[in-house]
Structures are given as structure tokens and as C-alpha cells.
UniProtKB/TrEMBL annotation:
It holds the Pfam family Pyridoxal_deC. The modification N6-(pyridoxal phosphate)lysine is found at K310. This is Serine decarboxylase. It comes from Chlorella ohadii. One of its GO terms (biological process) is carboxylic acid metabolic process. GO terms for molecular function: carboxy-lyase activity; pyridoxal phosphate binding. Residues 13-24 have a biased composition (Pro residues). SUPFAM superfamilies: PLP-dependent transferases (SSF53383). InterPro entries: Group_II_Decarboxylase (IPR051151), PyrdxlP-dep_de-COase (IPR002129), PyrdxlP-dep_Trfase (IPR015424), PyrdxlP-dep_Trfase_major (IPR015421), PyrdxlP-dep_Trfase_small (IPR015422), Pyridoxal-P_BS (IPR021115). Belongs to the group II decarboxylase family. PANTHER family: PTHR46101, SERINE DECARBOXYLASE. Its cofactor is pyridoxal 5'-phosphate. Residues 70-97 form a coiled coil.
Amino acid sequence: MDSILPLSVRGPLPKPVTKSPPPRADSAEDELVSSGVDGASPRATSAAYQALPVSGALITHNYTPALPVLDADELDKEELEARINKVIEDYKEKLQLRTDHHMGYPYNLDFDYGPLEGLQKYCINNLGDPFIESNYGVHSREFEIGVLQWFARLWEIEPHEFWGYITNCGTEGNLHGILVGREMLPDGILYASRETHYSVFKAARMYRMDAVKVGTLESGEIDYDELRSQLAANAARPAIINVNIGTTVKGAVDDLDRVLDILKETGYTEDRFFIHCDGALFGMMIPFVKRAPMVTFKKPIGSISVSGHKFVGSPVPCGVVMTRLRYIKGVSSDVEYLNSRDATIMGSRNGHAPIYMWYTFTRKGYEGLRKDVEKCLRNAHLLKSMLEKAGVKVMLNELSSTVVFERPREEAFVRKWQLACEGDIAHVVVMPNITIRKLETFVQELVESRARVAVSEALRLAEAARERHGDDEEE
Ligand SMILES: Cc1ncc(COP(=O)(O)O)c(C=O)c1O
């Protein structure tokens, strides 16, 4: 059969590379980036999680190696099968190992979707509006709507008053919530705290919105006094406010009621503000925490988003965004080709994700999730106490399971436990898969790592003295 490649691209394929080249320095920020030397930990004033790159050394030294696509034309069938199997088996082993040593990112890796295994042979795609079926029949909208109704009950909004969908991740939920806010209040200014996830400021850049980055308190919450003065100074323009229901690094929860009071004090009526609640991780936990402020549509909020692969746990990244139905008309249009409506950020949407969520919620129920939350908070407090006993400086926000502590100095330790670090701090996000036994191993290895660093620093002093003064045993 004739090749359909244009002549200019015929010929031998380029040789596969086994190591990715370092990224190009495309911007001033990139040029400031330097590699860690000899595996030494790079010192950063901000980290991958934070809103904008800052000057100083950032994280650049763990370049991804490539796994070249095998050459089916050169290998015989049997050899090819054997090679493929080996690659997959090795990869599975690596995944298991990495799963066993994961502490740093807010992912619940404890799930079992065994009965759903046969579904992966279907291309399940919920393209378009979840509430309006497209002509593409291999979808899971019925699961999606069921899950949305589950969330509507959790966040106290009537079934005929909400609109939402299952996203690809928390970021997409933030992009959608802020877009709805911008469409409702086109002249609005976006306010978000400095410790807000970078996706919120990305939305501001994408939608060309004016944004105010508000300072934070020691806990990581928004600085309420600064928010008040910023709102007062810009009172002529509406406000779109991102309220964090658990910040990325410190797990801080902005006080929604206090933000609402500040809006009232500064003269913003409900038609002049829109609040998006970013609850990527903790939005799923807060409803089950006693003493926590309620995040509910009974309060004048515009939207909430969460990630599905974080507290819930899922083999694919996913999330949920919910808003009021009356707002969505402004961001949607009919698409004849879909025979549905376009109101989402993405076109095609992962139809497997709603099934995972449906399955977990059905299996665990609200009570099962409450027990998971309880376990996480208990183990987070245990980890805090263990670290304190071991002489490690540590912080834990009252409502959070994110344990913040001094950044370990050995990069190998950080990599082994997959810790997210920012400047001088690291954190462990205690999820349902983190057991007491795992905490024991982690703390023991951390203490050993710190001791190694301390001994090597002490001996370095002796070495320097020897260089300066010679060995006194020879005197
Ligand atoms: C507070 C917060 N918002 C949004 C996100 C983005 O979520 P995702 O990774 O699901 O896009 C994160 C991720 O960690 C987060 O911590």
C-alpha cells in the first residue's frame, strides 16, 4: 500500500532518544533556573506548586528519560510480544514501589475498582453538556448526573438549581468557576491569596482579568485585613473571589463567613460579587469535619470545585465543578455537531471518571467517607507528634491533614517519599492509604537521613580545620 505521508517526510524515521534534552530557556525566568549539583537539594523561594515562577534556583534536575517506542518492523512477532510484556511488567513493578512510598501529594492511592476492570475496552466519552445526551452513544452521563446529585446533596443545592460536570482535574474546575464568575461580572477583579494554587492565576491570565494577589497569614489563610482594604480601594468594580478550602502547601482553609462579612462591610451587594471555592483536596473532607465552617450553596457562593483523584481516589485524574444553573446560560451555546450544548472547558470528557466516583460513593456512602476523614486527621496528628518527638519543626492547621515540616536536606529522601517541597518546607498529605506502619517507616528514615546530614556537616568542619591547621596528631 502506498504511504500517505507527503514525500518530504518519507525516509528513515529519526533515531529514538533515550534521554529528554533539558528544556529550552524560553523566558527570563527559565534562564534563571539552574540545575542542582551532585544531587544537592536546590534552594528555592517557591516551588512547582506556587502560582508564578520566581527568580532563583527552581526544580530542573530530574529530566524524564524516554522509553522509546519499540520498532515493530525490525522485531519478529514473538520477540516484540516478549519485549512489550517485559516493559509492562517492569513498569507495573515500578508503579507498585512508587505507590508504596508515596507521602507528598494529596492522592488517596487506596482504591480497588476490580469490578470495573472490563470497562477499559470502551471509549467512554461524555462530550458536551452532561445533562443533554449527544448522538455519541458510548457515554456514562447517567453515572455523571448521579454523582452530581450526590454532590448537590452534600453542598445543599436543589436538584433543579444546580449545573455542573465531571472535569479532568481540579484545575479545570477552577478554570470553569472563574470563567463563570468573569461572564457574570465582566468588569470584575479577581482576588485570591498568595498561597492559592497556580491554576487560579492561570485563569486570570487566560481570561485577561485584572487580579489582586492578597497576602496570607502565618497559617496560610488569606489576610482578611488586606482583603478588606483591597476591596475597599476597588469598590467601583465587582469582585470575583477565590476562597481556598485547603491551600496546596499548608492545607489552610479561608474563612468563607468572614469573607462574606468583609464583602458586606465594604458595600458589595450579592449582585456585585462572585465567590469560587477551590476545594481541590479539602472540599471533599470539610463536610465531614466537626467544627469546620460549612461550604454550602445556602451561602451566596457561585461555584465549588474539587479533584476526584485526591481524597476520593481514582486511577485517572478527575474532578467536579458545580455552579448555579441560572449562571450557566451565559457560558453555553448549542452545538449541532454534538447535538448537545457546549458549556464545559474541554470538548471530549473522560467518561470513565464518573463511574469511578459513582462506585466509590455507592460503596462507601457518606458514613464511609466520614470514617476515612477521621482516620486521616487522626494520623496527621500522630505524624505531627512523632515529628515533634524526633526534634523536627512541624506545623498542622487545625482543620487539615497536611503536615508541614522542615524540608529534608537529602534529595534522595525527598525523591523516595515523593515529597512536595517549597522553599524550606515540605509536607506530607495524610490520605486514607497512609497507615500508622507507613508513618513509622517514614519517620524512622527521616530521622536517619537528618542524622546522616548532621554527621557529614560536623565532619566537614573537622576536615576544614585539618586543611587549615594540619593534623594535630602529627604535631
Ligand atoms: C488547592 C488546589 N487547587 C487546585 C489544585 C489543582 O488540582 P489538580 O491537580 O486536580 O488539577 C490543587 C492541586 O494540588 C490544589 O492543591
